[in-house]
Design goal:
Oligomer: single chain
Number of helices: 2
Number of strands: 0
Radius of gyration: 43 Å
Largest sheet: none
Order of helices and strands: HH
Structural class: mainly alpha
Distance between the termini: 135 Å
Length: about 100
């Protein structure tokens, strides 16, 4: 009878030990999964940040090009105006004087 009780205690101890090892193994696997998914999330976030940075740089470049284009366009208009004014300066002054004298 003693051997049976001892055997039951040993089996119970083994079952408890096996249960604890199973819990530890499940916890370890859950931690591994958490780390795996965190790694995936980190990589996806990094990709998103890189894409945002790339888009931001593109927008900056396009904005810079647009500003330069508009500045060049403005300079051309000013240059054209100066050229037209210098070519027709006498006519413009004469016309303005006539209008002033008519008033």
């Amino acid at each position: 009878m003693e051997q049976i009780i001892k055997k039951i205690i040993d089996i119970d101890k083994e079952a408890t030990d096996l249960e604890q090892r199973t819990k530890d193994l499940i916890e370890q696997k859950q931690n591994n999964l958490r780390m795996y998914f965190q790694d995936i999330e980190d990589r996806e976030q990094k990709k998103a940040e890189e894409k945002i940075q790339k888009e931001t740089n593109f927008i900056r470049q396009e904005t810079y090009k647009t500003i330069k284009f508009m500045e060049n366009k403005k300079e051309k208009k000013i240059s054209n105006f100066k050229q037209i004014y210098s070519e027709n300066k006498d006519e413009i002054i004469e016309k303005a004087l006539k209008e002033i004298l008519e008033i």
